[in-house]
Known about the structure:
seven-stranded mixed beta sheet; globular; 9 strands; Spore Coat Polysaccharide Biosynthesis Protein SpsA, Chain A; 11 helices
Amino acid sequence: xxxxxxxxxxxxxxxxxxxxxxxxxxxxxxxxxxxxxxxxxxxxxxxxxxxxxxxxxxxxxxxxxxxxxxxxxxxxxxxxxxxxxxxxxxxxxxxxxxxxxxxxxxxxxxxxxxxxxxxxxxxxxxxxxxxxxxxxxxxxxxxxxxxxxxxxxxxxxxxxxxxxxxxxxxxxxxxxxxxxxxxxxxxxxxxxxxxxxxxxxxxxxxxxxxxxxxxxxxxxxxxxxxxxxxxxxxxxxxxxxxxxxxxxxxxxxxxxxxx
Length: 259
């Protein structure tokens, strides 16, 4: 019997760098709504769910998911790993595809490619981020239920709880892994939404593909950037994985002291 694989999108209203970003409008729909409509284009996922917190300000996140006819799982604000464990349990998933709600340009074909690699290799974990060769904002990680449950049981650092797959990445002796790479390397392209100027770029892309918002692909955006200087000028340039770097910096004193 084929494994049941479910896409789970983590999203919250209280982003430190850009509060309410997943609720921001992109050509008539919120960032999260745009993402969910594109994720549903994946043929590899049996279902799609949003994992948000139990805080009152995330009621708006839950409403977007419900409006898009997507399941909602609610758990601790900062323990995102536990939210994923809950989602896997509630949705009876054999594996989950980890996606983030601030990436509305995510290409469902990329999801399918990573899930295919996961199935072909029978790995505990498959992704397109170790190392990254796709645009920032097209990150896809597939985690087996067993690997997710072990991580949720054993991960102790705040960064491991918040960023979900850090524990897996740092314990290669425990988990088998596989990667999907893109040639040429496109990891210098930034298509995620962490700041207001990121949002302006995303809005411009959706305007460019008006009428095809749910079906345009990564390669079409790459081609547009190569031929449209104004669009390329709008795309911000920042370090990848800023959130993880900030989390690690905050806990570094504790680690250095052995606490």
